[in-house]
């Protein structure tokens, strides 16, 4: 099938590459000329396991092209996927300017039937706004071409995006019962047939429910994280081990083991903005989503917890003190630094007067870019970007771990101990066992792991 993907970011590039891999003829459009040039020169703008090979293979086969040519992109696909960003507006609502700009472009150039697929995460009712934007452009040109807007939210996880796209838990598609909607239904069904071979994974529903499902999913996941983080802080007070508690409750199938990890708070481009946007939608309907307000407040507080543990141990005045930081990206296997807890921690330590040496397996370039936006030149000068985990340790009072990269899970503890000034680890992801760390001679600070009585 001929498909256009508008927006070549995490979602658009993965969607385009994976649909090309299945044999479709895919045209990827972006307004960012640099990104398109990089892709056309064989580069990849993001770190995503497995993606580079798929892009290279399908470009070489002529099934995947990248361009900034809007007219050509509209002409190409009968299916037009909108996968542009929906960042938070100042009031927390989703900023739809990119989605609506993409819709207008389609309306401006289309001359035949199109299915417009909202893949971006957009608030309930956005499909109607997309429809109105396209219709206005068609009317302005006196073009009577028909179209349908469907909602097909994306559930992939950064760091496992290719795998998630290729083996989805579910495919959610919202369409309407108009003749155009029925035609769109048929085309979407055909497109996703290869994903449903093993068993049917597609949930067909009305458009608004599909839009809502994406927010509900992210809100639920964020709720689990904040719930565990809040309990972890209490566990620290009462002398219980949140990891033992996690196993104890996760074994109940009604609760399950996934997404119950206490840590340094959630970040990234989705949970923070989607929780806020859902709250904002509710407020437009005079409803206050009390649970989500708490989820967000707990998360904001949680991002401060690691830094507060450092201050509790070393005092408010961190001048003359140096710290090693492992992990900058908001989670492993990505270079995404959006809303990353490491940004909050680094600012806290620098505010206290400390210097830091930082390392991340893939996010170093992106970290330099975003930290330069967060911090002053003087603050930036107090950060050393190290070349390896071990390279961060010299002269550091302690090691602080913020992201649970696999490479950090079984480090050479003897070397860490001999490199640090003091054998102290603040573990924002509970990678290690307190007993093992104590035996190895470390002073260990996890999240919710201040057990009073060891077994
Ligand atoms: N990143 C994720 O893990 C993830 C997962 C599921 C859903 N989503 C949702 O998918 C959407 C996209 O997220 P992302 O992380 O891929 O964003 P991104 O910022 O990585 O990419 C968006 C791209 O769209 C381009 N763009 C903006 N306006 C355009 C226009 N008018 N025409 C063509 N291109 C345009 C930008 O230049 C950018 O390259 C968001 O709504 C997000 O919430 C993201």
UniProtKB/TrEMBL annotation:
<dbReference type="Pfam" id="PF03721">
    <property type="entry name" value="UDPG_MGDP_dh_N"/>
</dbReference>
<dbReference type="InterPro" id="IPR014027">
    <property type="entry name" value="UDP-Glc/GDP-Man_DH_C"/>
</dbReference>
<dbReference type="GO" id="GO:0051287">
    <property type="term" value="F:NAD binding"/>
</dbReference>
<dbReference type="InterPro" id="IPR001732">
    <property type="entry name" value="UDP-Glc/GDP-Man_DH_N"/>
</dbReference>
<keyword id="KW-0560">Oxidoreductase</keyword>
<feature type="binding site">
    <location>
        <begin position="155"/>
        <end position="158"/>
    </location>
    <ligand>
        <name>substrate</name>
    </ligand>
</feature>
<dbReference type="Pfam" id="PF03720">
    <property type="entry name" value="UDPG_MGDP_dh_C"/>
</dbReference>
<dbReference type="InterPro" id="IPR014026">
    <property type="entry name" value="UDP-Glc/GDP-Man_DH_dimer"/>
</dbReference>
<dbReference type="Pfam" id="PF00984">
    <property type="entry name" value="UDPG_MGDP_dh"/>
</dbReference>
<comment type="pathway">
    <text>Nucleotide-sugar biosynthesis; UDP-alpha-D-glucuronate biosynthesis; UDP-alpha-D-glucuronate from UDP-alpha-D-glucose: step 1/1.</text>
</comment>
<feature type="binding site">
    <location>
        <position position="121"/>
    </location>
    <ligand>
        <name>NAD(+)</name>
    </ligand>
</feature>
<dbReference type="InterPro" id="IPR017476">
    <property type="entry name" value="UDP-Glc/GDP-Man"/>
</dbReference>
<feature type="binding site">
    <location>
        <position position="273"/>
    </location>
    <ligand>
        <name>NAD(+)</name>
    </ligand>
</feature>
<feature type="binding site">
    <location>
        <position position="331"/>
    </location>
    <ligand>
        <name>substrate</name>
    </ligand>
</feature>
<dbReference type="GO" id="GO:0000271">
    <property type="term" value="P:polysaccharide biosynthetic process"/>
</dbReference>
<feature type="binding site">
    <location>
        <position position="214"/>
    </location>
    <ligand>
        <name>substrate</name>
    </ligand>
</feature>
<dbReference type="GO" id="GO:0006065">
    <property type="term" value="P:UDP-glucuronate biosynthetic process"/>
</dbReference>
<keyword id="KW-0520">NAD</keyword>
<feature type="binding site">
    <location>
        <position position="86"/>
    </location>
    <ligand>
        <name>NAD(+)</name>
    </ligand>
</feature>
<feature type="binding site">
    <location>
        <position position="30"/>
    </location>
    <ligand>
        <name>NAD(+)</name>
    </ligand>
</feature>
<feature type="binding site">
    <location>
        <position position="158"/>
    </location>
    <ligand>
        <name>NAD(+)</name>
    </ligand>
</feature>
<dbReference type="InterPro" id="IPR008927">
    <property type="entry name" value="6-PGluconate_DH-like_C_sf"/>
</dbReference>
<feature type="domain" description="UDP-glucose/GDP-mannose dehydrogenase C-terminal">
    <location>
        <begin position="324"/>
        <end position="434"/>
    </location>
</feature>
<feature type="binding site">
    <location>
        <begin position="259"/>
        <end position="263"/>
    </location>
    <ligand>
        <name>substrate</name>
    </ligand>
</feature>
<dbReference type="InterPro" id="IPR028357">
    <property type="entry name" value="UDPglc_DH_bac"/>
</dbReference>
<feature type="active site" description="Nucleophile">
    <location>
        <position position="270"/>
    </location>
</feature>
<feature type="binding site">
    <location>
        <position position="35"/>
    </location>
    <ligand>
        <name>NAD(+)</name>
    </ligand>
</feature>
<dbReference type="InterPro" id="IPR036291">
    <property type="entry name" value="NAD(P)-bd_dom_sf"/>
</dbReference>
<feature type="binding site">
    <location>
        <position position="267"/>
    </location>
    <ligand>
        <name>substrate</name>
    </ligand>
</feature>
<comment type="similarity">
    <text>Belongs to the UDP-glucose/GDP-mannose dehydrogenase family.</text>
</comment>
<dbReference type="GO" id="GO:0003979">
    <property type="term" value="F:UDP-glucose 6-dehydrogenase activity"/>
</dbReference>
<feature type="binding site">
    <location>
        <position position="338"/>
    </location>
    <ligand>
        <name>NAD(+)</name>
    </ligand>
</feature>
<protein>
    <recommendedName>
        <fullName>UDP-glucose 6-dehydrogenase</fullName>
        <ecNumber>1.1.1.22</ecNumber>
    </recommendedName>
</protein>
<dbReference type="InterPro" id="IPR036220">
    <property type="entry name" value="UDP-Glc/GDP-Man_DH_C_sf"/>
</dbReference>
């Amino acid at each position: 099938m001929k498909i256009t993907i508008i927006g070549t970011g995490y979602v658009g590039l993965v969607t385009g590459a994976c649909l090309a891999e299945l044999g479709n003829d895919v045209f990827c459009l972006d307004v960012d000329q640099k990104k398109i040039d990089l892709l056309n020169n064989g580069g990849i703008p993001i770190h995503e396991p497995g993606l580079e090979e798929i892009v290279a293979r399908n470009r070489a086969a002529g099934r995947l092209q990248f361009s900034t040519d809007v007219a050509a992109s509209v002409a190409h696909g009968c299916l037009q996927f909108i996968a542009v960003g929906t960042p938070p507006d100042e009031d927390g609502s989703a900023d739809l300017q990119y989605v609506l700009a993409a819709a207008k472009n389609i309306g401006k150039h289309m001359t035949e039937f199109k299915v417009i697929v909202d893949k971006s995460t957009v608030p309930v009712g956005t499909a109607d706004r997309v429809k109105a934007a396209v219709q206005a452009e068609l009317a302005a040109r006196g073009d009577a071409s028909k179209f349908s807007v469907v909602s097909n939210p994306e559930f992939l996880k950064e760091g496992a995006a290719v795998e998630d796209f290729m083996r989805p838990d579910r495919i959610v598609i919202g369409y309407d019962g108009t003749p155009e909607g029925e035609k769109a239904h048929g085309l979407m069904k055909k497109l996703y047939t290869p994903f449903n071979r093993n068993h049917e994974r597609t949930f067909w529903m009305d458009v608004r429910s599909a839009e809502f499902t994406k927010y509900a999913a992210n809100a639920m996941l964020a709720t689990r994280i904040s719930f565990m983080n809040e309990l972890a802080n209490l566990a620290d007070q009462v002398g219980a081990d949140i990891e033992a508690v996690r196993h104890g409750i996760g074994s109940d199938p009604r609760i399950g083991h996934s997404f119950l990890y206490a840590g340094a708070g959630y970040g990234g481009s989705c949970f923070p903005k989607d929780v806020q946007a859902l709250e904002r939608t509710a407020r437009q309907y005079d409803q206050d989503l009390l649970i989500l307000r708490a989820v967000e407040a707990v998360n904001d507080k949680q991002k401060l917890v690691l830094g507060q543990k450092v201050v509790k141990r070393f005092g408010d005045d961190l001048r003359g003190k140096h710290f090693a930081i492992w992990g900058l990206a908001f989670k492993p296997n990505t270079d995404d630094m959006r809303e990353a807890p490491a940004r909050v921690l680094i600012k806290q330590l620098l505010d206290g007067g400390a210097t830091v040496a930082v390392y991340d397996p893939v996010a170093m370039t992106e970290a330099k870019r975003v930290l330069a936006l967060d911090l002053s030149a003087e603050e930036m000068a107090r950060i050393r970007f190290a070349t390896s985990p071990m390279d961060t340790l010299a002269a550091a009072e302690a090691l602080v771990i913020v992201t649970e990269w696999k490479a950090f899970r079984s480090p050479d503890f003897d070397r860490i101990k001999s490199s640090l000034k003091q054998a102290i680890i603040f573990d924002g992801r509970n990678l290690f066992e307190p007993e093992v760390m104590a035996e190895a001679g470390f002073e260990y600070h996890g999240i919710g792991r201040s057990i009073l009585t060891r077994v």
